[in-house]
Amino acid sequence: MFRTIKLKLPYDRILIETAKQFKEAAQIVLDYGFENKTFNKNKLNKGTYRSVRERIPTLPSALIQTARDTASEALKATELKKKIKRKSLTIRYDNRTFKFYPDSHTVSLTTVQGRLVYPVAHSPLIDKYKGEYTNAQLVIDEKRNRIFIMVQVNVPDKEVVKKEDVKVLGIDRGVKNIVVLSNNVFFNSKHVREVKGRYQYLKRKLKHLGTRSAHRKLKKLSGRERRFVRDVNHVISKNIVSLPCDVFALEALNPAYMKQKDQYKAIRKMLGSWSPSELQKFIEYKAKDAGKTIIYVNPKYTSQRCSKCCYVDKNNRYGSVFKCQNCGFELNADLNASRNIEVLGRSEYFRLMSTSQSLRFNESPLTGGVENSNKLRSFSEE
Ligand SMILES: [Zn+2]
Questions:
Q1: Of 228, 277, 291, 296, which sits with the fewest C-beta atoms within 10 Å of its C-beta?
Q2: 316 alpha carbon to ligand 1 midpoint, in Å?
């Protein structure tokens, strides 16, 4: 991620003269671009290079180029609609015209007197943000007799989010166990199945009676059953989200896929109206309230893949037992699946983190202060 370090430089007349010439060069390009209605860098170069060289012979050509780039961007930003008068006394530096030495607290800059080295005032940010020093902006404040340089640092991502510090929990939903977590926690469905079974038995009996009072009782019973399911889902989701994890990984519940996956067929058959999507909804909003992240992963092969050696085989699973045909690893089948979900969730989380970060960096050059986002897009199936 990008950070900006603001450093004080000595108030030096060579830097001021360089900034004045830079400003003049940029102004020539601004006027030319406005008159000729172009912000195209090649056209601006062809149209102005000679006159800039003649009028400002001491400005190094690398700075003429950055002055032209700055002007081109300003012309583009105003869509050539108004004449621009450059006011600020600033210089844009890039990797050809500046180098920052954090250890010796010095910076080398291209100036009208050639390349010069300047000391910079100490700042705690020099030690805090180390990385690649990509760009810089020199700012001259003539009113207060001050010169600053804003150095942009590309701090490696790992300094912000350490992969091993992010705790990911894989959540597998099943029949015998409502959920199994990759940290070896099981939420058994025995009690739920018993209660659901009782309700189903009573409902069948009442339906068979067919009287009006039986119909009323049936309605009441269905409401009670729904509340029971909801309460169980509330308790489970609360338990899961309160665990010390940052990211919760679940299988993406695609309705078409659920129809063909045995696991979900069995859930519906054995648990009746039990809905894994309600539990998911509860986990989702409780995690959001707690500032945690939910990641959805592709459910393909999560029950067939060995969580130890990654070997995928239909025969790896016999009911509730997982035994790898390749490495012989044995484990509870749901636990094995939850561990696969954790691994997939972790890689998906970091993939989304890196894409959302690079997008943001491209949008905000030299502004600094970009924070991490935990608003991640959820996984979509192919
Ligand atoms: Zn294996």
A1: 291
A2: 9
